[in-house]
Amino acid sequence: MDYTAAILAKLPGANKRDHGVRRLVETLQAYLPEDQLKTITAAYEFGAKAHAGQSRKTGEAYITHPVAVAQELAEMRLDAQAITAAILHDTVEDTTASLDDISEKFGSEVALLVDGVSKLDQIQFRSRAEAQSESFRKMMLAMIEDIRVILVKLADRLHNMQTLGAMPTNKKKRIARETLDIYAPIANRLGINRLKVQLEDLGFKHLHPFRYRVLEAALKKSQGSQKQIVKKITEEFGAAMADEGVEGEVVGRQKHLYAIYNKMATKKRQLSDVVDVYGFRIICPDVGSCYQVVGIVHGLYKPMPGRFKDYIAIPRINGYQSLHTTLFGPKGLPLEVQIRTRDMDRLAESGVASHWIYKADEKLDTSPQRRTREWLSNLDELQQSGTSEEFLESVKVDLFPDKIYVFTPKGDIMPLPKGSTTVDFAYAVHTDVGDRCVAAKVNRGLVPLRTELHNSQTIEIITARGAKPNPNWLTFVSTAKARMAIRHHMKNLRSSESVDLGKRLLDRSLKDIGSSLRKVGKVRIAETLEEFELNNNIELFEQIGLGERLAPLTARFLTGVNDEGEGCENTTSMTISGTEGMVISYGKCCYPIPGDDVMGYLTAGRGVVIHRNQCGNLSNFRKQPDKWISVNWEKNIERDFLCQIQTDTKNKPGVLAEVAATIGDCGSNIEQVEVLGRHEDCSVLSFLLLVKDRVHLASIMRSVRNMKNVIRISRDCA
User: Fold this and answer.
1) In the predicted model, what is the mean pLDDT of residues 385-396?
2) N or C of the chain: less Cβ packing under 10 Å?
3) How many angstroms separate the CA atoms of 464 and 558, rounded?
């Protein structure tokens, strides 16, 4: 049956044009049975009618886009449901069609795929970033249920990138950045190299058009001479393998532009150094031949030390397997060689999609699928806590798997991102292990928890009952799982602190108008909770503590005092004990310390922020007097506070070291040093110190001021 003709015959006369349909049908007929082709035909008819009259920025009929997406998936040999979803993926967002319509005509599974790809356009969000994050979270959760969701989305993104030229410049750059940050890494994580390469090159082209054109021209210019060298070396490899009786196919690898650009940026190399790197791929019949070929090529050309990677024995996180080696070629030119079997090569290009492409061959349905399931399970764990923005950030961290491989005490291999610490390892083992870890051993020796791990180390975690995560761990952990678990603990901690703070603030406001929580009574509190749509007192105190509800207004509502009572003077102050961490914080614009005259400012989501009375930002805050809280310091606070000082020093060798030594002698630690300016005769230095109070600070400043090379010293304040 001619399905192309059948499809076009059912459409209105004006739309009887081949919008890529013929090519799609020819591709599908190669692997799908006739009854499934009928379903896809019905989907095309449905989609074409739904999108009738719509066009893309390029001027083409809109239906060309879903057909192109379906074509990409058809080349991966995805099933009929995925192809149907690809054709219908924009109908819910951009037409009057609903998910119920799709479910009724094409089944609930297709409807779920379409829903997974659709954005959350019907919900109002506070910002574009929140909307994007929530839509991404929705898509990733749908992907956890069905991997085909992300395959449809990647194909959709690829065609959008191919036609991005019609978009305004700012939109092009935003979409290109998003593609490079999220979608190309996802394709890489799923092992689908053919999509990853295209997305990266197109993202690079639209994000940095000038750099792209320069690199493209340079590559074309060098291709003439490269062809001769590549041909010569290819023949040498082939002849050497034939002499040893090893079968195999040698091909010159085509570089893609983004990989060249990335190498230049990360390794600080000149264009000529990168362009003159020659790539070869050798396809062998079996694994044993791969290792034999390594010996053959190493016999022809000297290998570079430390540049041999065995991804067959230890596959990459996405299931990729190959042997990599770099050789000193003719005239010292670097030769990058990849050696793998035919099956490995296919899997490297198709990744998780090989489940559909090669599903007839059960032995191929292994590594990419298994590793993808593990990754999806980890994503499911990540999404259970935190906001959509935190989830997006965590996924981004997880999408750049530059891995190291370490061992558990039992000898099991555990892959971790490069830069991981012992805490990351602990959380990778289990969340409970991470939460309760107190110490770690690397190769049987005790090390600090922030110790960075390296390949082949054996890690042992020491735990203790009752131990809790330290918020300071967030400054050095690398994995998304560790970061999310620590944040989850901090949120619970913040919740209890905010309840305590909210109760104190409300009590203080009630005292200001001559009342208290006891005088208000349970009946009035219950009425207030009902009015505010809250379940209990705890929720009310928490909202006040986090600054989401103002204590003075709540107090007036509880007591029935009208707004005319606003003029009451504040008779009480809140005491700062100095131990507050999450809900009471200290302004980084003025760095208040005990002994300073201070005021508290109620900030939504952050609780009370303490500022010095001399802070330059106070003028902005004074416009909202209802958010100011009178505060004072508790006596004998046992903790250190950050404080900033600025010094003008003579321009002489060793002055910085002298000042730092003097500060250290005064019992203070320097957290940060910055050179603000340098003149012929003097330099301006800024120090961020840890001090106990104003007395301690005065002692430090006096000692520094008495130094012969110090001209002036002052305390910074915004």
Assistant:
1) 55
2) N
3) 46
